[in-house]
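DEPOSITED CHAIN:
***
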Amino acid sequence: MNLINQMKLSMDAMTLGEKFTGSIIVTLLGVGIVFAALIVLFFTIVAMEKIIVKPKPKKEVEPKPVNVIEEEEEEVIEDTELVAVITAAIASSLNTSTHNLIVRNITRVEDTTPSWAKAGRINQITNN
């Protein structure tokens, strides 16, 4: 502690090694104080949580009967124009002829795009 007392008075008379050692001691002391304060804060929060928060009584959950919903059969729509447009789009993206493709099944995929993304796309389309 003599080194810290010497740092309080004058650092001009200290050698470079003493200054370095003193700075390391001060750094470790500061980190130790912060760490100790964080530990005290942690235990204070844990104690407050145990005091303030009351445990909820556990309710026994009775199993509910599951309602069986019969799946509706998909409506088969014979829309030749839609099939033609989809086939043409696929052929165009694959750079091939429509004669080389056979469309056997077309199913609608649920759109999971968020509403903000849809609004952004509409905004981009209307601005161009």
